[in-house]
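Weekly structure sync - notes
Attendees: PM, LS, DV (DV joined late)
Agenda: review two folding runs queued last week.

Item 1: First target. Sequence and structure tokens pasted below for the record.
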Amino acid sequence: MKRSDWTWGLTAGLALGLLGLALRGAGVAYPLEGLFAQITYALGTPAVFNLLHGLFGYGELAKNLAFAGTALAWLLAHPLLWWAARRSLPLGLGLAFAAYAASAYALPGGWLAAGLYALIFAGLVRVLRRRPRAPAPAPDPARRESLRTLALLAAGLALWGQVRAQARAAWDKIAGLWPEQIGQSRLYVVSKNPAFLDPDLRGKPYALEVTGLVGQPLTLDLEALKALPSADLVHTMTCISNPVGGDLIGCVKWRGVPLKALLDKAGVKPEARFIVWEAADRYTESIALTELPAEALLAYAAENPQGGKFEDLEPRHGYPTRVLLPGRYGMKQPKWLTRITLTDKETTGYWAQRGWSRSAVIRTMSRIDTPKRNARLKAGEETFVAGIAYAGGRALERVEVSLDGGKTWQKAELRPPRAKYAWQQWALPWKPEKGDHTLQVRAVEVGERVQDPTAREPLPDGATGYHTVRVRAG
């Protein structure tokens, strides 16, 4: 391969990648998105995800690095395609179509998109290979600029972070304690997609279908859904990937259509046994009708606790609608909902196909919000050990705190829950003595069912173990 193959191949790959974003907005399948989905799905076993979380944490970094790696593979493939096309344009066209089709075949319209991308690539080859070669072996600025752009793309994706609103005080005297309720601006965001590829359905036609084993199939736009009788639900959303002590959890007040009312309107047939959700990003999940919580909600708004007003869901939280299933991890509650199908056969969900939990029932958890890990405290000065606890809707009897690494336990003050599916705040006043201290917390359900102390990774069934924080007083 010649240097010019690298230069123009990388340039073509970058141009097609950027053009693809614009075409995606017009409804054309994006092969780079399809390639990323295939790679993450293939690697999406609990063992691999636990390893990646251990290396990169539980935020967006691992996913963004994965997309950066996918983008790099995309770019590096194009010099090879360019080399083939320079030798034989029909050969290059065929290989390009095969590469794009292999990336996009699972997307709606993927085969047509592959043909379009291959034709655009062939057009770039015909136009750009006619350019005269540089007479001197000076460093190629186009190649250098392409590599610089790639580096900026990878760095930008890796540093993509979540913007969180400042917490309002709850139990004002306890600094650092999360409030009883947060808004969607502070709620964690998890998706199988890079953030910039998540569906943004604002200003676009929207219709929710209720189909399958129903007497009256429904097609409802957002206004029609909002016209139906609504209900509010204080609901603690938590991700199955949340580690012990993690922040992939939040208690939000939602508004929407009770799912039971919607199903009654459609008339579920007696032979129906399962409900299947389908989302705009092709995510699927299901649950048996017999396991459907009575409070299940098709949410279209969330309350802003600062003003008390309900606001449309943010795109990153599922606008225009998302499913809420109290007592289950977030993987069972798709965002950007487009279809509800009633069936007589079980459908294995997107991540369950890779070995994740099929039921995704929330495990009892507790977390220390304050003091933080490795905090320096003043000996003899009163402070608080405080945090939140949640058992997926099962009632908590008490929360206990250990100040000596689990040797002894003290009962903390447990604030009554705002609602059945709300997390609860807890606090223990403490005057630390000089020295090092190991703090732990555990929740106890009604009936003396103590939180599982066994340290387990989040996947496949949710993390267990006691949150532990080490501090020093002096």
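Item 2: Second target, run right after the first with the same settings.
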Amino acid sequence: MAEVIPFKGLRYNLDIVGDISKVTTPPYDIISKDEQEYFYNLSPYNSIRLELPKEFPGDNEEHNKYNRAGETLREWLDQKALLREKQDCYYVYQQEFQLDNNKTYIRTGIIGLVRLEEFSKGIILPHENTLSKPKADRLQLMRACNANFSQVFGLYDDSEQKIPTIIEGYYTNHKPDIVLEKSVVGSIERIWIVDDADLTQKISEAFKGKKIYIADGHHRYETALAYRDELKSKNPNHTGKELYNYVMMTLVDMEDPGLVVLPTHRMVNNIKDFDFDSLLEKLNKNFIVEEYKVENYSLTKKQQTIQDILDKMGLHTFVLYSGERQSLYSLSLKSVDVMRGYHPNRHSSYWNLDVSILHTLILDELLGIGEKELAEQKNLEYTHSITEGINEVEKGNQQMTFFMSPTTVKQIQDVSLANEKMPQKSTYFYPKLITGLVFNKFC
């Protein structure tokens, strides 16, 4: 089963770089061009210069953004702007945040190295398909820098709560080594450095026998696998103990009270010859459709009504809001068995996903938004905000929004164990892990 070990992480030397809030970023894959520019200007030591380096005119195979990232890393090491730990460590990583309900959540994980395993072994389990272009990009960066700059986000199932108990016993009796009062993702971030050899061994032992479920970072994980295979083939003295056989991960217990998955609502646009009455009629085949008049409702009341419907009716229920009506429509699936006819060769865990039901029975079947349209990024946009889903329709930017409940952690586990893959944009773990707290250099 999974092998998890401590490591000598690279961390910023705050005597040189200053405020750590100036050098951390969100994950590279959610950073826009404008945000990239912002982080570049925030500090000459910002981690954006490693994780998402700029392209320049005239770049070629020898001089490009990847090589510049490698040169930057070497410069920072020479300047001692980055320092390697003197002994192997785990890093307890806590994020404190609030949602729209004003409730405070604290998600606690541990950063360590996880041995890379082929998915076929059933030790590290994915739930998403990946795309070749992002993997090619990350592989070139890894070749140039020989490092992990951001963590893969993994989950583990610990019904006996051994690992969370060990972690809690440490952080409740020690002050955090790093604190960001407000991070780039809006959370309070805390890091405790665990370097006691007996305790790190105890943590490693507790992970034996566990499976790791990838929550976020599938492209980074598969890239690390490819890089391992490259280095292994070039190393006649390969032992399997080299650091390139591992990937840096943040691991969170599936029962952690701060583990939050947000819904990803679907906004639909540019459907030609769209007829709303015809859509409602067709929806009645597989769904119980109820209308809620909201003509005189404020934005806040509409938002609350949508949330109340989803909370009350639970899984397999959607809420439709269209610019053609001043009404909301709840859509409750009559029977999940209908999914068997569309996907006879897929596991029941796939049929039971709300996102699978929405894409199969509504988006594809009734609106013509199938795999081709999704790949071409036609007709569909995404939001985690009910407010944005309403506003975009009322502004005329979207024809309709389908609001849905979030995928549950149990569903993610079931799909992963069944060797199934979810549709794109099925999960959104909040908040994102930030980059820049600790790096992993392979040598």
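Discussion on item 2: The chain has a mean pLDDT of 96.
Action: LS to circulate a short write-up before next sync.
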